[in-house]
């Protein structure tokens, strides 16, 4: 029997049949050799369940990662698998219904941050997080995205920023931070070696990231710029399930970098934005990107390791939160540790940490879904326990979305820990060149 407490949102006024067929068409488009192998390979061992913070914190089997893909799998088996004729003929796999898709919305959006912890542990190598992203394509086409989340993604498409950080707003913030940090913040330079980007969370909530980045790049004598036509490293298209919207925002960055002749694009302290350009940018551009892409923590690790940037020692005990998309999914796990080592902080690692770190619970767009907040706080308790065990009062991170997630939970729980940015700590402790 259907759970009467289930919640879902619908976009657009279309018939039930049209919604289902839009979802099925998108699912079929995403079924390729890799997807098909994943769908066939699961041996139902349940290892992925223990890796997921939603299952871990609730014990509810519906949060088992592979179960979140069950309707996608049903569509594959019936419509595209090698035995689809058999499944159809004897109705062994039923047609996907609108009711199933509506019920499924909570599992695909409210309770998956696409953190990839399940993908890491699956003995069959099934990349569940990526498959969740693909399943969201069908949900988006069917108009079945949580409304709060949809509106944020739509704003990113129509206004160029999910949080209203338009080019004019950004330019104001750039001027403000230039004054505050007493440094030049380059904007719309015609030529530059480095294009720097920001996430809207930084522009609107943590603008010191703008000044901190400028101060570091100016100390190094870099020729760099922000560009008004491509500054927002957003990824809400990707997370909501719209390939088209994501391509539009990613192409703005690519074109801005090409226009100013940048050899390097630096992505900000934002996890999902990193994946959207670093790992998916070339596919969206249709050929290899003509520039290098680095997360800001990778750039900092490089300039510190090479001796170009010198930093003072900081007498502080900290723990570090690994952003899932930068560490586990991005591969930049060591970079922030190289930077923290140079700063001389007393790093108390969480257990587990690095590639095995637990997610903050705010990624994948979950932080935008108001109805998911109780579940989000529940899973955050796992992070609180981890931080408490380290004995540190300060958590550093290299993702503004994680930072926002911690800050929100800190208010909710009246928690006495601080969440700070590694980038800003570096900027505050530069040894100026003579
Ligand atoms: S860990 Fe992998 S093989 Fe095991 S149940 Fe999960 S998806 Fe299936
Ligand atoms: S990607 Fe993360 S949140 Fe989503 S099912 Fe896997 S472990 Fe859970």
User: What's the structural domain tally?
Assistant: 3
Bound molecules: iron/sulfur cluster
Q: Which structural category fits the helices and strands?
A: alpha/beta
Large-scale geometry: globular
| Continuous helix count | 22
Side-by-side strand order of the widest sheet: 2-1-3-4
Rounded to an integer, what's the Rg over CA atoms? 22 Å
Helix content: 40-55%
Task: Please report the distance between the alpha carbons of the first and last residues.
Answer: 73 Å
Question: On the 0-100 scale, what is the average pLDDT?
Answer: 94
Number of E strands: 8
Could you characterize the architecture of this molecule?
This protein has 434 residues and is an alpha/beta fold. It folds into three domains: 16-145, Fumarate Reductase Iron-sulfur Protein, Chain B, domain 2 (Orthogonal Bundle), CATH 1.10.1060; 152-303, no CATH class; 309-428, Rossmann fold (3-Layer(aba) Sandwich). Helices cover 52% and strands 6% of the residues. The protein contains 22 helices and eight strands. The protein has helices at 16-30, 33-41, 47-51, 53-58, 70-79, 84-89, 98-110, 117-121, 128-141, 147-159, 167-181, 200-204, 208-219, 236-240, 243-260, 271-279, 281-285, 296-305, 334-343, 373-390, 400-413, 422-428; strands at residues 194-196, 224-225, 264-267, 292-295, 317-321, 346-347, 394-397, 418-421. The strands form two sheets. A four-stranded parallel sheet has the order 2-1-3-4. The protein has a four-stranded parallel sheet with strand order 6-5-7-8. Helix 1 packs antiparallel against helix 9 (128-141), helix 13 (208-219) packs across helix 22 and helix 18 packs across helix 19. The longest helix has 18 residues, at 243-260. The radius of gyration is 22 Å and the shape is globular. It starts with 15 loop residues before the first helix and ends in a 6-residue tail after the last helix.
């Amino acid at each position: 029997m259907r759970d009467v407490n289930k919640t879902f949102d619908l976009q657009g006024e279309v018939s039930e049949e049209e919604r289902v067929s839009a979802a099925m068409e998108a699912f079929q488009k995403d079924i390729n050799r890799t997807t098909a192998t994943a769908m066939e390979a699961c041996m139902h061992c349940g290892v992925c369940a223990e890796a997921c913070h939603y299952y871990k914190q609730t014990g509810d089997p519906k949060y088992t990662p592979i179960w979140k893909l069950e309707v996608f799998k049903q569509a594959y088996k019936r419509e595209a698998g090698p035995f689809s004729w058999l499944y159809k003929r004897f109705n062994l796999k039923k047609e996907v219904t609108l009711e199933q898709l509506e019920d499924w919305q909570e599992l695909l959006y409210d309770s998956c941050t696409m953190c990839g912890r399940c993908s890491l542990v699956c003995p069959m190598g099934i990349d569940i997080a990526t498959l969740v992203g693909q399943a969201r394509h069908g949900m988006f086409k069917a108009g079945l995205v949580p409304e709060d989340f949809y509106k944020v993604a739509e704003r990113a498409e129509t206004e160029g920023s999910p949080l209203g950080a338009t080019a004019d707003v950004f330019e104001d913030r750039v001027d403000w931070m230039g004054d505050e940090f007493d440094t030049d913040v380059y904007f719309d330079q015609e030529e530059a070696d480095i294009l720097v980007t920001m996430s809207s969370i930084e522009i609107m909530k943590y603008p010191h990231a703008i000044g901190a980045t400028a101060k570091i790049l100016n100390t190094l004598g870099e020729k760099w710029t922000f560009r008004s036509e491509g500054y927002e490293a957003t990824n809400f298209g990707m997370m909501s399930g719209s390939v088209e919207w994501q391509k539009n925002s990613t192409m703005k960055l690519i074109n801005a970098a090409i226009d100013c002749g940048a050899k390097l694009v630096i992505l900000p302290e934002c996890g999902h934005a990193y994946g959207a350009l670093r790992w998916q940018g070339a596919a969206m551009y249709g050929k290899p990107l003509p520039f290098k892409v680095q997360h800001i923590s990778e750039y900092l690790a490089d300039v510190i390791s090479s001796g170009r940037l010198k930093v003072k020692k900081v007498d502080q005990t900290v723990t570090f939160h690994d952003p899932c998309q930068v560490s586990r999914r991005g591969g930049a796990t060591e970079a922030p540790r190289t930077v923290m080592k140079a700063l001389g902080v007393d790093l108390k690692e969480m257990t587990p940490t690095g590639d095995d770190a637990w997610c903050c619970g705010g990624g994948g767009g979950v932080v935008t879904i108001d109805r998911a907040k109780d579940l989000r706080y529940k899973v955050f308790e796992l992070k609180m326990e981890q931080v408490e065990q380290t004995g540190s009062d300060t958590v550093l991170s290299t993702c503004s979305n994680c930072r926002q997630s911690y800050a929100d939970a800190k208010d909710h729980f009246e928690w006495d820990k601080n969440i700070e940015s590694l980038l800003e700590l570096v900027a505050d402790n530069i040894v100026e060149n003579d």
